[in-house]
Structures are given as structure tokens and as C-alpha cells.
């Protein structure tokens, strides 16, 4: 690249700065900037002309604001204030820029990044457009072009003071279009010569020390700043000039919301500072003076609601002349703006807070007239200078009513019933007839106006009601009391008024409405006349009830007048009764204080006689025979012996007097008659009941009496003649004697009948004496049973309250044993073998283990008691004891338990008289080559010709131990065979318990003495004695020799052999077929039933066993065979 090319790139910067700079590019060569020679117009002048004539200025507000940005085309979209409404948000200005070529206004370039607009300028974009994008967007905007941020308004200088000569700015091209980034980094050195760098530096000092340059047309600037007094060294101020800063402070707020504050600028080495609004406020107008003081005037709406708003202000010292702001400024100069920072300005964010400003509303009201219900309607009219929406409120209730306020300002006042009633009072004041309340009008900023509303109260009153209440006249004084029962719906206190006198009496009325009416004596006397009319007997008057509120009601009363008259008096004059007829004569003599003519009446028939009264007062009285007879009673009272009646004297004026007359009645009587009726004695108590039956011609009520006690008892007689006789215990006991005489069994006494009128009768009575004996009592003493015999001994001990000699009975049999009772009450109980067996079973109940019987105790006098006795049944059974010898190691606990269970099952079916204990020797082996399962053996109880039980059989059935201390039997077992020991037997294993019971049954005697058909001696088992041919013929003769003709039967010939014991035959229903195979099988033949003819899987005693569960319960045939062998079998 040629040197001229380098020079062409740097000259624009040199001219724009008005200074030449020495640039060392390598090899000591430098390049110098030169003024343009191509006739290009001065960029600053062009920009100023364009912005000054732009018709868009101030178009977005419609009004001029101080320091408003002049060139909206350079501002990005304004950020909406969060406290302002959307309607206040301004429209964003155009995003395009007009360049940034004015002297001193270039913004700091953002870092160079890949794809930035600065690189795009190298690719051929217009230089001015590229520069505008870089200087007016933040680095974030470069990285994300879709989200632009507002660009600051251009900063320009103000006019210079008058004593400074302006210096015209040289023309220059845009900085960013002059130098290529790639060229600056390539290290290529231009070869063209350049002037001395010192001359450029001197020039720069001269320009810095000169006067400020005039501003091109600029927007949002402050007034011209007065030169500041600075003391900094000019050289230091030029090369190390400090960047100005701002520290904004809000100072005060005016009554209309205008905020005053200071930017508090700081720059110790620059005499002139300029202020530019970098970001405008949204909801107000900003003005900044030359000293950095600002005034923020909010919109009226914003001031009204109160807001907090921010804006940005840039302070610049560029108007003080060119200077290098330290190393970063020098680097910025030498690299043509690619590195470092100009440092001549800074931007601060200013925050202002506007406290809400509000104008309080005003209010007036109008009130209508009350309606028929007393309701008053009106309206409150509010006004607000701010135009705020208004709400209406106020009192909801008063002491006299309620207020309902509508949102429109209309209100309704409803007085209480009490208030309306109070207004109706005749003494009501003006205050009683009105009410007042406060209503308010409030704007949306809580300022309000209150008006006091006065409304009239319409009077209201309800007339009282009343009902009369009249009492009954006093019979003595004639006074009548009563009251007016008044009611008032309003709760008014009522007053009562009326006349003090009437035509026939006087009236007193109390404040409560009660009254007292007193008739005159003349009125009462007139009312007493027998010819008095209804009008003569009543009087009337009216009482008025008044509520004091203009309401009243009249109540009229009609009262009765009680008649009054002096009654006549009289006295009686009597003669003595006639002794024969009982008639009495006499007279009543009357007198009257009023001198009235008297009349006499009183003829009457009483319960005791008849009286006849004459008009002049004389009378006669004749008593009835009944009354005379009653008067004859010994217990007759004066009332019985007299009669009374009344003679009435009447004066014709309602006055009458009854004069009582008392008559003495002459007595009259006839004596009674009677007899006795006697019942049988009560067997338990000996009491005899009877009745003395009396009669009386006069119909008198009879009374009965007796002696109370006799030689052998006591008598109680009732008022009706019934009586009871109770003999003494001794008399009854004597009557109970077997030798008692008739005299010992009876008693006699006399009862009397009286008529109560002087007549009486004595009646003799004879009664039987019921024998009495006390039943004896007894206690029982029972001993423990004998373990061998089961016998239980005990005693029933009786006692007798009468001291009788007692006898005892009760010998006999029970269901489970026998009882023998001795004469002294001792007893012995012997249980049966079956009872003892049942008691020994594992499932035996308490009832199975006891028996009861009764012993009767008699005293010889008809007294006996049955005493229940309960005895314990001593269990008895067969006990199997197994002694394990050779091969005991094969006998697991499970196998041993199963063997014991099998033995216990058999023992539960065998009944013994005394306990039997059996001993078996047990062996075991594990022989897989053998086909045998198990075997059992028992010796014969004897030798020689004959039938013998096995040792086990003999020991159980007879109690004789044939073997002494030796084992009674033996058992051998092959454990190579698969066994199951519990109730769940698998299909491929043998049932241990079933096989064990089979083998034990052999030792119990189901076994033959025949060794084989060819070896038959005369030594047989009891089992063999029941062998029969098919026709029932005996096969062993009397000499114990097997009959040769039946030898073939041993191997199936001649129909084989059968068991002919009667019990087995009965169970089977015929001779029982035995197992007689064609080939003799030792240990199996004859000793088993034939499975081909006896139902399979029903009996233990079959010759073969198969896998799976076996039989565990004795079959009927097996039980029959055991019974035939001498066993007592319990089913």
C-alpha cells in the first residue's frame, strides 16, 4: 500500500482535530493529515444546516419545551415510564442517524467484535451509516441488532463569551470512514515524508488554549455557561485533562409538582461545561441552567398521581477547548479513535420523585319532602377541579334513622319509628322534628368535602286500644273493682280519666287504669227488692285512655249492684218425745229488725224422720224405726241419737234466716242369732280358718270376739266374723305322733256375737290340729376313688331340728355304677367298667368323669330329704409302653409319636375293669432289599393242647400277667419303606399309624396258631376256636386236632375258612370270610379277613397294604372279633 493511501486515511482526522499528530508506523516514517483538496463541504456545517431545518423538530409533543432535543431523528425509542399510563408513552423517533461529525461530539466506540458494524464498513457499507450505527448503539445492541437502545442526543458547545473571538472549525470527514482496522494492524509503514510532529503538538496547545468554537445547530443544550475559574497547570490540563462528572440531587417540590434540583457538576480543570439531555423524561419537561441546576415540570396528570421518573444528562468539557484526557485520551488520538477513550464527557442518570398533587372536591346538596312513610330523598352533587372520579359516602345511621347512599350521590333517609313517634308528641320541639347527618364527596386521591344534610321527620302515632276487666262485687260492701287494660303499639304511657260519681255510686280511678266502684246504700237496697228490675241491679260509666300523642279510646263499664237487706232472727221451743211413737212437737218464734212480715217454711223428710212446719212456725217431728234402732246402739253418739232440720224465716226483701231444730230420738232394738263354720287346717302352717255367721232382725252390724288363746293355740277373729286358729308347735308335733289320739289332734273354744245394741250370743267352736314335723337336713362327705377298683366311699350326715332318729336309704344302680347306702348314712359307689373307660378317653367331658345318685334321709315323722351325691369316676384303660432296643436310631420322635397315637386309638376302644399296662419291645431297621413293612408278636398265655389267649389278650381280658416282668409283645419296623406319620398321607407313601394299629391287633389275639397246612399241632389261639368251614362246621375237633378233611380249606379248598364268632357273624351278617390263598402265606393266611369278599379299605385286618391313607377306625367286623375274643369293646 502506498504512502499516499495512508495519508488519505489520516487526513480527515487531522483536519477535524485542527492539529497534526506524529504517527510512528514503523521505520521512523510518519504520515501527516492535510486539509481536503477535493472541494468536499464542511461536514459540521452540513450537519448544522440539516438539523436546523428539519421539519420534524417538536412534532411529537405539539408544544415547545425548554432544552428539548432538536433532532428526534437521532433518538431511539424512549423507554416507557412504569408509573405513567400507556397513553402518555411517546412514539419512538426514527432509528436512522444524520451522522456524528460535529467537533467534540463523537461518542466512544464500542469494542470491535466479529460481525460488528465497524467491520461491515470495511465491506463497503457507506461510511456515515456505519459510523452512526457504531456510535449510537451499545455493544449489546451490536451483538443483538434486533433490540436497539436509545442513542444519546448530540452534544454541542454553546456560544463563546463576548470577549472571545470565534475560531471556525475546519472541515473534516467522518473519523470512522478514514482508517481501516486491518491496515492499522498490518504494520505496513508509509514511505512519504511528513512534517515535524512537534509543530502539530504546538498547534494543538494553541487550539486548546484558544476560545471555544461556535456550536453547529444542536438540540437539548443548556444556556451558555460562564467561564469557570480553574487553577490547574495548563500543560497538565492539556495532556491529563480530567473527565467531568455529575452528582444529581433533588432539592424541592413546588405546589404544582415542579421539582428543583442540582446536577452538582465536578471538573477542576475545565472552565466551560455544557449539559445535554441524553435521555428525555417521559412525563414532564426538563430545563437545565448554565450552572447545572435543573427544573423538572411534570405533566398535570403525572403530578396528580405522583411518579418517580429518570432521565439522563451528559456533561462535556469540550467547550473548554481540545485536551488530551490522560493516556487513554492520547491513545485514542494516536489510534484515530480505535483504542482508548476521549474522556471529555460523562452521562449521569437523574431520578426525580413527584409527590402527588391534588385539588380537593366541593359538594352541594338538595333535599326533597318526606313521603307517606316518612322517607326523604335527596342528592349530593360533587365537583372536582382535577376531573377525578368521585365517590359518595357518609353516615349510614343516625340516632333517628338510617341513610342509604347511592354511587350517583342520591341518598334516601328513613327515620325510625321512634323518631317519627317522638315528632308526633304534643310537646315535641323543633329538634325532635328534624334530623341531620354528614355526607361526603371523595376523589380518587382521598381528598373529600363533607356537607351536613338536615331532613324533616314526619310525625307518626297509633291510637291506643283498651279492653274492660270487671271483678265480682264484694258481697258485704258491694264494692266492684276492675281495670282498663290499655295497650299502645307505640309503647306510650297511657293516662286514664272518668267521672267521680254516677247515678248510683262513686268511682275512683288510679293512674294505672284500675278503678273502685262503690254503690250507695239506697241503690243496694233498691236492688234487694224482690220486684227490682235489671236496671235497678246495674250501674254504668265510661273511662278514657289517652296516650299523650293525640290518641285516645273510651271504655264503657256496666257493674252489678249487690243487694243489701237485714235478715230476720228466730228461736225454738220443743216438747218431750212420745215414749211409744217417738213423736216430738214444737214451734219457731221469729222477729225482723226492718219490721218485715215473716213467712215460715221447712217441712222436710230427713234420713231419720219427717218434720211438718205450719205457716205460723209450729211443727211436728216423727222419727223412723231405723233411726230409733240406731239410737238404741250402745255406742250411739249424740249425733245418732238426735235429728235436725231447719225452719226458714223470710222477710220478702231477700232476707231469710234458717233456724235449726234438734230433736232427741227414742231408742228401739232386737237381739241377734248365729252359728260357726270351720275349715280344714293348712298342712304347712297348721292354721285353721273359719267364720262365725250371725244375723240380726234389726239388720244391726254384728261384732265378734273370742278368747285369744286356748290350751293348744291362739284365736284371732275379724270384725266380719272370720277367724283363724293357730296351734302351737308342740301341739302340732304331738298331733304328728304315730300314736296321737283324737284329743291330741283337736282343740275347742267359744266365740261371741254382739249386735252393738245391747244384744249378744255365745257360739262353741271345735278345730283340728294339723301335724307338724321339721324336715331333716344333711351334708355330704365324698372320698376319692380307688385307682384300681374305682370304688368311692362317702357319708351323708343328717340332722333334725326335732331331735328325731334318722334313717338313710338310696341303694341301687345308676347309669354308670352301683350304690350301697348303710343305715348310718355311709355309702359306697362302684362305677362300671364302661363308665371308667369313657372317663379315660382323651375327649371325655366333665360329665363323663362324674356320676350322681341320691341318698334319702328320713326322720320317722314324715320328714325326708333327698341328698344329691356327686362322685368322681376313676378312669381306667390300657396303657401301651414301648421300649426301644435294636435299631432305635431309626425311630425318630415323629415315628415314636405315631406309634403311641396308634396304640392310644386302640386303647380308646378297649374297656377294662382295672387299669392294664402293656410293655412292648420295639426294634427297627433300614432294609431296602426287604419287602416287609412291619411285624408284631405276642406269646401264648399257655402251652399244650388247647385254645390260648396271647399274653396281651390274657392280661387285658382277665387281668392276669402271664409274662411276669418280660415284655408282653414285640414290634419290628422297616424304615427303608416310605412312611407318612400324620393325617396327610401322600399317594406314594405308606400310612404309619394304620399299619401300627394292624400289627398291634395281631398281638391282641387276631392271630392263628397254625404254622402251615403241614404243621398243625394242638396248640391253638382263642381266635382259632372260631374257625369254621363255609357251612359252619367246626374244623378243629374236641381233642384240639385240626380235622384233616378241612386241611385243603387252609389254602382255599372247600370254600376256604371263616370266622364264626357270634359277634363277628352278627356284625358281618354271616360267617366272616378269611384270607386263604392257594399258596400258604405265613403271618398272613387265616389271621386276616379276605379282601376279595370283605369290603376293601374298610378293615385293618386285611393282608395287604397299599400306598396312601389307610383305615384308622375299627370296623364293625373287627369289633365283633374282639368281643368274641373276650374283649369289652367301646364303640
Structure description:
This protein has 20 helices and 59 strands. By secondary structure, it is an alpha+beta fold. It folds into seven domains: 3-354, no CATH class; 362-456, Immunoglobulin-like; 465-560, Immunoglobulin-like; 569-664, Immunoglobulin-like; 672-768, Immunoglobulin-like; 777-872, Immunoglobulin-like (Sandwich), CATH 2.60.40; 889-1129, no CATH class. The protein has a five-stranded antiparallel β-sheet. It has a five-stranded antiparallel β-sheet with strand order 39-40-44-43-42. α16 (893-907) packs across α18 and α19 (1062-1068) runs antiparallel to α20. The chain is flat and about 170 Å long. Residues 1-224 have low confidence and may be disordered.
Short recap of the structure:
About 15% of the residues lie in helices and about 30% in strands.
The assigned structural class equals: alpha+beta
The whole-angstrom Rg is 76 Å
- Strand composition percent: 25-35%
Q: How many runs of DSSP E, i.e. beta strands?
A: 59
Write the layout of secondary structure elements.
Layout: H1 3-17, H2 43-52, H3 117-122, H4 127-135, H5 139-143, H6 181-186, H7 197-209, H8 234-239, E1 245-246, E2 249-253, E3 259-262, E4 265-266, E5 274-279, E6 284-288, E7 293-298, H9 300-305, E8 307-316, H10 326-334, E9 345-354, E10 362-367, E11 376-383, E12 390-394, E13 401-405, E14 410-415, H11 417-424, E15 434-443, E16 448-456, E17 465-470, E18 480-487, E19 495-497, E20 505-509, E21 514-519, H12 521-528, E22 538-546, E23 552-560, E24 569-574, E25 584-591, E26 599-601, E27 604-605, E28 609-613, E29 618-623, H13 625-631, E30 642-650, E31 656-664, E32 672-681, E33 688-696, E34 703-705, E35 713-717, E36 722-727, H14 729-736, E37 746-754, E38 760-768, E39 777-782, E40 792-799, E41 807-809, E42 812-813, E43 817-821, E44 826-831, H15 833-840, E45 850-858, E46 864-872, E47 878-884, H16 893-907, E48 910-911, E49 916-925, E50 934-937, E51 946-948, H17 951-958, E52 969-974, E53 979-980, E54 990-991, H18 992-1003, E55 1019-1021, E56 1027-1028, E57 1058-1059, H19 1062-1068, E58 1072-1073, H20 1116-1124, E59 1128-1129
Parallel strand pairs: 47-49, 49-52, 51-55, 53-54
Antiparallel strand pairs: 1-4, 2-3, 3-7, 5-8, 6-7, 8-9, 10-11, 11-14, 12-15, 13-14, 15-16, 17-18, 18-21, 19-22, 20-21, 22-23, 24-25, 25-29, 26-30, 27-28, 28-29, 30-31, 32-33, 33-36, 34-37, 35-36, 37-38, 39-40, 40-44, 41-45, 42-43, 43-44, 45-46, 48-59, 50-52, 56-57, 57-58
Helix pairs in contact: 16-18, 19-20
Amino acid at each position: 500500500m502506498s504512502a499516499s493511501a495512508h495519508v488519505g486515511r489520516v487526513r480527515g482526522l487531522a483536519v477535524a482535530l485542527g492539529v497534526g499528530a506524529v504517527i510512528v508506523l514503523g521505520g521512523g516514517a510518519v504520515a501527516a493529515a492535510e486539509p481536503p483538496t477535493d472541494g468536499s463541504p464542511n461536514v459540521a456545517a452540513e450537519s448544522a444546516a440539516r438539523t436546523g431545518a428539519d421539519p420534524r423538530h417538536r412534532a411529537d409533543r405539539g408544544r415547545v419545551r425548554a432544552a428539548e432535543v432538536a433532532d428526534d431523528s437521532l433518538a431511539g425509542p424512549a423507554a416507557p415510564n412504569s408509573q405513567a399510563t400507556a397513553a402518555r408513552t411517546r412514539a419512538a423517533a426514527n432509528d436512522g442517524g444524520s451522522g456524528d461529525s460535529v467537533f467534540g461530539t463523537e461518542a466512544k466506540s464500542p469494542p470491535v467484535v466479529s460481525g460488528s458494524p465497524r467491520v461491515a464498513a470495511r465491506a463497503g457499507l457507506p461510511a456515515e451509516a456505519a459510523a452512526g450505527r457504531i456510535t449510537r448503539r451499545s455493544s449489546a445492541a451490536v451483538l443483538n441488532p434486533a433490540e436497539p437502545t436509545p442513542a444519546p442526543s448530540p452534544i454541542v458547545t454553546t456560544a463563546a463569551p463576548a470577549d472571545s473571538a470565534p475560531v471556525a472549525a475546519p472541515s473534516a470527514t467522518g473519523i470512522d470512514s478514514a482508517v481501516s482496522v486491518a491496515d492499522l494492524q498490518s504494520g505496513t509503514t508509509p514511505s512519504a515524508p511528513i512534517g515535524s510532529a512537534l509543530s502539530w503538538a504546538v498547534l494543538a496547545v494553541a487550539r486548546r488554549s484558544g476560545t471555544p468554537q461556535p456550536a453547529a445547530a444542536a438540540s437539548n443544550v443548556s444556556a451558555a455557561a460562564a467561564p469557570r475559574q480553574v487553577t490547574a497547570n495548563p500543560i497538565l490540563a492539556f495532556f491529563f485533562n480530567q473527565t467531568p462528572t455529575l452528582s444529581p440531587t433533588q432539592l424541592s417540590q413546588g405546589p404544582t409538582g415542579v421539582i428543583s434540583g442540582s446536577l452538582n457538576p465536578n471538573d477542576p480543570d475545565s472552565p466551560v461545561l455544557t449539559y445535554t439531555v441524553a435521555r428525555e423524561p417521559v412525563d414532564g419537561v426538563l430545563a437545565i441552567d448554565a450552572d447545572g441546576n435543573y427544573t423538572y415540570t411534570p405533566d398535570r396528570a403525572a403530578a396528580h398521581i405522583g411518579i418517580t421518573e429518570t432521565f439522563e444528562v451528559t456533561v462535556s468539557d469540550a467547550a473548554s477547548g481540545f485536551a488530551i484526557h490522560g493516556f487513554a485520551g492520547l491513545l485514542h488520538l494516536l489510534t484515530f479513535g480505535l483504542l482508548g477513550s476521549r474522556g471529555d464527557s460523562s452521562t449521569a442518570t437523574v431520578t426525580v420523585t413527584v409527590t402527588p398533587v391534588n385539588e380537593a372536591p366541593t359538594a352541594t346538596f338538595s333535599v326533597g319532602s318526606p313521603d307517606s312513610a316518612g322517607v326523604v330523598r335527596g342528592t349530593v352533587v360533587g365537583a372536582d377541579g382535577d376531573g377525578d372520579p368521585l365517590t359518595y359516602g357518609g353516615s349510614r345511621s343516625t340516632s333517628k334513622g338510617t341513610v342509604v347512599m347511592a354511587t350517583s350521590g342520591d341518598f334516601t333517609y328513613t327515620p325510625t319509628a321512634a323518631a317519627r313517634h317522638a315528632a308526633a308528641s304534643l310537646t315535641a320541639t323543633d329538634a325532635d322534628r328534624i334530623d341531620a347527618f354528614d355526607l361526603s364527596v371523595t376523589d380518587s386521591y382521598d381528598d373529600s368535602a363533607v356537607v351536613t344534610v338536615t331532613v324533616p321527620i314526619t310525625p307518626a302515632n297509633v291510637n291506643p286500644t283498651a279492653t274492660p276487666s270487671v271483678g265480682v262485687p264484694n258481697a258485704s260492701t258491694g264494692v266492684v273493682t276492675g281495670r282498663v287494660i290499655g295497650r299502645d303499639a307505640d309503647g306510650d304511657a297511657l293516662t286514664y280519666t272518668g267521672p267521680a260519681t254516677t247515678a248510683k255510686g262513686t268511682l275512683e280511678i288510679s293512674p294505672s287504669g284500675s278503678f273502685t266502684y262503690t254503690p250507695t246504700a239506697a241503690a243496694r237496697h233498691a236492688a234487694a227488692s224482690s220486684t227490682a228490675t235489671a236496671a235497678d241491679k246495674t250501674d254504668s260509666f265510661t273511662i278514657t285512655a289517652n296516650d299523650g300523642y293525640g290518641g285516645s279510646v273510651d271504655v264503657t263499664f256496666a257493674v252489678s249492684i249487690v243487694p243489701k237487706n237485714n235478715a230476720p232472727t228466730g228461736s225454738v221451743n220443743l216438747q218431750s218425745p212420745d215414749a211409744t211413737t217417738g213423736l216430738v212437737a214444737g214451734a219457731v218464734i221469729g222477729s225482723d229488725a226492718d219490721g218485715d212480715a215473716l213467712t215460715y217454711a221447712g217441712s222436710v223428710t230427713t234420713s231419720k224422720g219427717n218434720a211438718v212446719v205450719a205457716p205460723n212456725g209450729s211443727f211436728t217431728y216423727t222419727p223412723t224405726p231405723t233411726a230409733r234402732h240406731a239410737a238404741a246402739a250402745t255406742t250411739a253418739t249424740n249425733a245418732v241419737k238426735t235429728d235436725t232440720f231447719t225452719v226458714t224465716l223470710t222477710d220478702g226483701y231477700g232476707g231469710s234466716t234458717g233456724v235449726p231444730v234438734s230433736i232427741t230420738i227414742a231408742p228401739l232394738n232386737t237381739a241377734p242369732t248365729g252359728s260357726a263354720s270351720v275349715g280344714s287346717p293348712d298342712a304347712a302352717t297348721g292354721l285353721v280358718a273359719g267364720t262365725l255367721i250371725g244375723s240380726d232382725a234389726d239388720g244391726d252390724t254384728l261384732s265378734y270376739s273370742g278368747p285369744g288363746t286356748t290350751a293348744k293355740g291362739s284365736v284371732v277373729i275379724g270384725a266380719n266374723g272370720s277367724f283363724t286358729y293357730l296351734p302351737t308347735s308342740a301341739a302340732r308335733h304331738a298331733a304328728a305322733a304315730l300314736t296321737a289320739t283324737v284329743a291330741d289332734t283337736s282343740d275347742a273354744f267359744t266365740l261371741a256375737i254382739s249386735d252393738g245394741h245391747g244384744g249378744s250370743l255365745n257360739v262353741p267352736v271345735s278345730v283340728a290340729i294339723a301335724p307338724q314335723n321339721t324336715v331333716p337336713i344333711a351334708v355330704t362327705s365324698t372320698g376319692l376313688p380307688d385307682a384300681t377298683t374305682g370304688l368311692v366311699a362317702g357319708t351323708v350326715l343328717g340332722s333334725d331340728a326335732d331331735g328325731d332318729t334318722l334313717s338313710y336309704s338310696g341303694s341301687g344302680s345308676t347309669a354308670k355304677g352301683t350304690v350301697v347306702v348303710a343305715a348310718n348314712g355311709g355309702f359306697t359307689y362302684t362305677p362300671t367298667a364302661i363308665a371308667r373307660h369313657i372317663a379315660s378317653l382323651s375327649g371325655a367331658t366333665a360329665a363323663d368323669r362324674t356320676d350322681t345318685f341320691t341318698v334319702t334321709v328320713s326322720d320317722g315323722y314324715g320328714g325326708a330329704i333327698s341328698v344329691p351325691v356327686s362322685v368322681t369316676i376313676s378312669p381306667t384303660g390300657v396303657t401301651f409302653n414301648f421300649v426301644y432296643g435294636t435299631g432305635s436310631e431309626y425311630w425318630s420322635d415323629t415315628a415314636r409319636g405315631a406309634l403311641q397315637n396308634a396304640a392310644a386309638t386302640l386303647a380308646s376302644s378297649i374297656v377294662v375293669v382295672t387299669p392294664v399296662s402293656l410293655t412292648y419291645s420295639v426294634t427297627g431297621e433300614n432294609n431296602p432289599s426287604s419287602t416287609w413293612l412291619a411285624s408284631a408278636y405276642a406269646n401264648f398265655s399257655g402251652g399244650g393242647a388247647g385254645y390260648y389267649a396271647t399274653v396281651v389278650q390274657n392280661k387285658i381280658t382277665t387281668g392276669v400277667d402271664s409274662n411276669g416282668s418280660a415284655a408282653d409283645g414285640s414290634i419290628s419296623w422297616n424304615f427303608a419303606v416310605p412312611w407318612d406319620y400324620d393325617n396327610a398321607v401322600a399317594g406314594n407313601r405308606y400310612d404309619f399309624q394304620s399299619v401300627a394299629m394292624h400289627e398291634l391287633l395281631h398281638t391282641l389275639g387276631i392271630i392263628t396258631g397254625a404254622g402251615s397246612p403241614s404243621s398243625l399241632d394242638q396248640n391253638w389261639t382263642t381266635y382259632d376256636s372260631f374257625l369254621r368251614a363255609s357251612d359252619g362246621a367246626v374244623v378243629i375237633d374236641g381233642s384240639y386236632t385240626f380235622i384233616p378233611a378241612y386241611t385243603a380249606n387252609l389254602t382255599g379248598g372247600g370254600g376256604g375258612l371263616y370266622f364264626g364268632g357270634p359277634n363277628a357273624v352278627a356284625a358281618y351278617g354271616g360267617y366272616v370270610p378269611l384270607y386263604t390263598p392257594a399258596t400258604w402265606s405265613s403271618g398272613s393266611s387265616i389271621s386276616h379277613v379276605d379282601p376279595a369278599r370283605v369290603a376293601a379299605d374298610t378293615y385293618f385286618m386285611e393282608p395287604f397294604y397299599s400306598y396312601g391313607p389307610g383305615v384308622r377306625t375299627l370296623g364293625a367286623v373287627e369289633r365283633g372279633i374282639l368281643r368274641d375274643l373276650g374283649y369289652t369293646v367301646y364303640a
